[in-house]
Amino acid sequence: MASYIDAAAIVSTGIGLVxxxxxxxxxxxxxxxxxxxxxxxxxxxxxxxxxxxxxxGRRSVFLVTMVMIVAGSALLVFSxxxxxxxxxxVLVGLGTGADLPVSIATISEAATDANRGKLIGxxxxxxxxxxxxxxxxxxxxxxMGALGGQxxxxxxxxxxxxxxxxxxxxxxxxxxxxxxxxxxxxxxxLRARASGLKHLFTDRRYLAPFLGLxxxxxxxxxxxxxxxQFGTYxxxxxxxxxxxxxxxxxxxxxxxxxxxxxxFMRIVDGRHRMTYYIVGAITSTAGLLVPAIFGFxxxxxxxxxxxxxxxxxxxxxxxxxxWTQETFPTLLRGSAQGAIIAAARLVAAGxxxxxxxxxxxxxxxxxxxxxxxxxxxxxxxxxxxxxxTAVFEVEADSVDEADAALDASTTPAxxxxx
Length: 418
Description:
- It is a single chain.
- The protein is mostly helical and 418 residues long.
- It has a single domain (2-408), classed as Up-down Bundle (Growth Hormone, Chain: A), CATH 1.20.1250.
- It has helices at 2-24, 28-56, 58-77, 82-110, 116-141, 146-167, 174-184, 190-193, 198-202, 204-239, 243-267, 273-294, 298-314, 317-327, 330-358, 362-384, 399-408.
- Helix 10 (204-239) runs parallel beside helix 15 and helix 12 (273-294) packs antiparallel against helix 16.
């Protein structure tokens, strides 16, 4: 549900702030600042939450994060001026950001090698679910002005409250408990030895994939963040259609993304993972190039949505989460994923601050986005095309044995990941 709430918060902010802008007279700079604050909050939350989850356990972190999201959404509902809206959005951003790395780590540590990718892929389906429910709701409330924004913000707050109640019964990750015991006993296992952010930079096994994932997710996320936070803005102010019509188009495109996400679940634990990644990367880049070349219209906007659906299913957040969980051991897993998410959201926050102004030259901006995501896709392909061994297979081994297994999995002669 972290993915559901993350998506619902981003899309609700993108739509709700447009409605608040019209009702409360927010300036373009304030609109961009609020959007950037959400992204910045997610970045800081992910970095701190991932580290706290590795150090103190997953459970305590993912309970506190839901409290923050509930409080932030309530403040969004009852605020009408810039400062309280800013505080509310920071709370929501910190909560969703901190929740993502610990919740995904909990899922992966409860899974087996045969179904880990599938279960992480299912979390991505809930990401689509967050978009679908929010956009569906916006088709109803998009013409209600500020009240429509309040309903959108209340939606993910109520969901977060329900999730908080349900999570009370979830136990701590057994993998984390075991890794923590081994670390306290100074055991010579990979999962006991590899802990702390310093290992991401000082251990050669982790530095290359960490940097590869960081570049990949940071660049590709620029396009996703632009669509999520500014999709309605582009539709209304660049294409010239209404909030309701844009919400309807987005709503109609989402079933395709969901079906592709289900297909990702079928193939992610198999040997064709990288082939689908390449297809998603090419389609996503092409979708951004269409309006860059032909200008903005209903047709080219739909092309962007199609590219985002295919790329989002096979070559974006879901595969990043799978690679992250497979690459880093238990006491490093949350920190690594949190740092990757944080870096991506920090970059996106900086771009979001000036996006409303950059959209004055929308075709140039989308051409630049296409180039950046293409670079990100290439970096990830170069990093993971030969990887064959997941850290789950060796993290309980002695450090020397684990080193040998992990080194063998990344040699140029290794077969594609299965």
